[in-house]
Amino acid sequence: MIADSFGRVHDYLRISLTDNCNFRCFYCMPEEEYDFTPASRLMQPAEVLALAKIFVEQGVKKIRLTGGEPLVRKDAAEIISALGKLPVELVITTNGTRIAEMLPVLIEAGIKTVNISLDTLQPEKFFMITRRDVFHQVRSNIELLLQHKIVVKINMVVMKGLNDGEIKDFINWTKHNPIQIRFIEFMPFTGNKWTSNKMFSLQEILDVVEKSFVVLPVESSPNDTAKHFMIPGHEGSFAIISTMTAPFCSTCNRMRLTADGKLKNCLFSDGETDLLHALRNKEDVLPLIMSSIWSKKKELGGQLVANFENLDTEAIKNRSMITIGG
After folding, report:
1. What does DSSP say about strands 113-117 and 262-264: parallel, antiparallel, or unpaired?
2. Which of 50, 159, 223, 271 could form a disulfide with 253 if both were Cys (CB 3.0 to 4.6 A apart)?
3. What is the mean pLDDT of residues 98-115?
4. Of the CATH numbers 3.40.190.10, 3.20.20.70, 3.10.350.10, 2.60.120.620, which one belongs to the domain with range 12-324?
5. DSSP states of 125-162 as a string?
């Protein structure tokens, strides 16, 4: 069992396979000329599996694969297949561009839930946000997942003045489709030019939805990061991840392993523990894991303040979102 000093048991591991991505979303990877981590410094397939096994032996029940974009990694299929043999729930977050070609691998590995990052339903705006003209490819791949009875969750980062006007459109999408829309409050990371006036809050999202729909709360699962809601008559549902205005730190059970093998005990932590170096030196990795999680701060990495309007983003010490893996 992996626990911190506040009694929170950590049984959910997020593994980033790469910091590379075929999109260029400004809030995640702001610079076009981004220096990706050299392949030699990334965890190799056998190393990903070796570290994952250590976590599973200590009680990890769920592993989520992230990036960058995890499916652009050339050996992604090898890694996914290996992890699929572990006694855990294996899920993935992707931008959806490579679903069609990777679907047999995902199914073979037992992946039953896929999170798709999609911030707009407008092709022109999609191109503006991602700098890639593949909107219809992503939409087609979402339909493909649904046809194969795979649970689809859509991650939409809501940003004031950019896509907050599409909240109703996303809700309408759930009318005849068994998808879950996950509205996410815009969060500050190194280089993403976060300001409080760009953030659209939990309450603001609910206010928009409730103007047009009857909204009923749904009981959340233990350790859930999202607040869940349903609309009578809709096949799908929606949820809100309110990291900035109503954080869920008290029940956090998440750990993050970056593509270069660093363990972060919180998305916003200013420190990290190098597991890959220790593994390559044939050192015992478990004490490093236990020590890292035990030192986890009570909330928001000890860096963010509860009143986000007074947040000094220049004082935050962290990686950019793409190098953490979400």
Report:
1. unpaired
2. 223
3. 98
4. 3.20.20.70
5. HHHHHHS---HHHHHHHHHHHHHTT-EEEEEEEEBTTT
